[in-house]
């Protein structure tokens, strides 16, 4: 499980859609492990910039998302194990939010602006 902890803390970013915290290079090389089928971040610097933020607060380690009440409360219980930000500054652009809705994905803003 040590591989879940990003090694390069200088370039950490949090996904605005799922909240997973990875470094910029990982988003560029592999995309988001949860959101790649939806937004295709891999190799797309502009999409990474639109869908991630370097400003985030509160990090939680999620090892067993389906079994964790914290993961359920944070809306990450259907995602992969990893490090997740509690709050991420910013929101995805409106066109991406619309696209997520069209694909049946419920977007939960991670900036604290949405009421749960």
Could you name the key traits of this structure?
116 residues; alpha+beta; Herpes Virus-1; three-stranded antiparallel β-sheet; two-stranded antiparallel ribbon; 5 helices; globular; zinc ion binding; nucleus
Give the SSE map.
Elements lengths: L11 E4 L5 E3 H7 L5 H4 L5 H7 E2 L2 E7 L6 H5 L8 E7 L5 H9 L14
Antiparallel strand pairs: 1-2, 1-3, 4-5
Strand elements, count? 5
Total domain count = 1
Radius of gyration: 13 Å
CATH class assignment: Alpha Beta
Family: Belongs to the SPT4 family.
Organism: Coemansia asiatica
Protein name: Transcription elongation factor SPT4
Keywords: Elongation factor, Nucleus, Protein biosynthesis, Transcription
Write up this protein:
The structure is a single chain. Helix content is about 30%, strand content about 20%. The chain is built from 5 helices and 5 strands. The model has no long low-confidence stretch (mean pLDDT about 85). It is an alpha+beta fold and about 120 residues long. A hairpin with a 5-residue loop joins strand 1 and strand 2 (about 20-25). The chain has helices spanning about 25-30, 35-40, 45-50, 70-75, 95-100, and strands at about 10-15, 20-25, 50-55, 55-60, 80-90.
């Amino acid at each position: 499980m040590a591989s879940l902890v990003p090694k390069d803390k200088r370039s950490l970013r949090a996904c605005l859609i799922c909240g997973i915290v990875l470094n910029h290079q990982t988003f560029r090389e592999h995309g988001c492990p949860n959101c790649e089928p939806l937004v295709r971040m891999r190799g797309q610097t502009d999409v990474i910039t639109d869908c991630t933020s370097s400003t985030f607060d509160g990090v939680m380690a999620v090892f067993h998302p389906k079994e964790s009440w914290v993961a359920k409360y944070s809306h990450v219980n259907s995602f992969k194990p990893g490090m997740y930000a509690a709050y991420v500054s910013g929101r995805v652009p409106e066109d991406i939010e619309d696209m997520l809705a069209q694909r049946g994905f419920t977007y939960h803003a991670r900036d604290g602006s949405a009421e749960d």
